[in-house]
Amino acid sequence: MGAEENKDVVRRQFEYLNEGNIDGATALWAKEALNHGRKVDHAGLSKVYESLRTLQERHILHELIAEGDWVAVRTTCSGVHAGAPVIPVNSGIFTNVNPSGRDYQVQHLHMFKVLNGQLTEHWASRDDLGAAIQIGLSLRP
Hints:
With 141 residues, this protein is an alpha+beta fold.
């Protein structure tokens, strides 16, 4: 697949996430993949997507850049601390914290490896500290 097709796979993953379509987003992944260096299967990915849906996360995509099998994307992520995620996401900032109902909006950078039309690897750099402050967590050294 070429760069444009790979970017389309990544774009669809975010579209499905924005729609809350967990099955659609999960289906874009290979049966065995890596998420932040950890092996993950479809069941694990479904838990990630369910947790993000609990937070009502939505992404506005800005730039998508592709080279070889890799696609990089910068997004603005907005969400609401409206519930408790099923598993720790976003560095675990929502774990054991009562939902504040507060909105958050932060920048994300994501990199995806796409092979044969499927996502096989993902890395991200997110402003989790910014999100934590926006939902009202008091941070200590």
